[in-house]
Amino acid sequence: MIAVVQRVLHSKVEVDSKVVGEIGKGVNILLGVEKEDSINDVKKLVDKIVNLRMFEDENGKMNFSLIDVNGEALVVSQFTLLANLKKGRRPSFENAANPDIAKELYQEFVKEISKFLKTQTGIFGADMKVFILNDGPVTFIINSKEL
């Protein structure tokens, strides 16, 4: 499971020109689910994200987590994070989980992170427009297989 975690001041996602999820200070999480992922990957990734010290203290040091700052999360499914670009010019998505399994693990991720943070989402599989007002910018790429 791969997550691109961006610290934001504001983020929203629209489907068919309607806002379906919107947050203030927190993180925008683009989430990709791989073939071999399981609930264990979900739990490791959620634990890392909610406890990662990515928010600055009064001295400008990253000493505060999402939990510490009462941050929010906007979770958006993005299978293109699993693209294999080694050969040719067309991405291969052979490493992405099939949509049924990916949706189930995406929903589990949302359920788990919601235990800690106010959480909004996009719509799995929809054509979404994501608006991100980066803070910093601060961006982390986290792979559950590396945790």
- What integer is the average pLDDT? 97
Tell the overall outline: globular
Q: Please mark out the parts with pLDDT under 50 across 5 or more consecutive residues, or reply none.
A: none
Count of discrete alpha- or pi-helical segments spanning 4 or more residues: 2
The share of residues in helices is: 10-25%
* Head-to-tail CA distance between termini: 11 Å
Query: What is the CA-based Rg, rounded?
Result: 15 Å
Would you list the SSEs in sequence order as H and E?
EEEHEEEHEE
Which structural class matches the secondary elements?
A: alpha/beta
- Write down how many β-strands occur, each being a DSSP E stretch of 2 or more residues: 8
* Main sheet properties: 6 strands, mixed
Strand content: 35-45%
How would you describe what is shown here?
- The chain has helices at residues 39-51, 99-114, and strands at 2-15, 18-23, 26-32, 55-56, 62-64, 72-77, 118-121, 128-143.
- With 147 residues, the chain is of the alpha/beta class.
- The strands form two sheets. Strands 1, 2, 3, 6, 7 and 8 form a six-stranded mixed β-sheet that branches.
- The mean pLDDT is 97.
Layout of secondary structure:
Blueprint: E1 2-15, E2 18-23, E3 26-32, H1 39-51, E4 55-56, E5 62-64, E6 72-77, H2 99-114, E7 118-121, E8 128-143
Parallel strand pairs: 3-6, 6-7
Antiparallel strand pairs: 1-2, 1-3, 1-8, 4-5
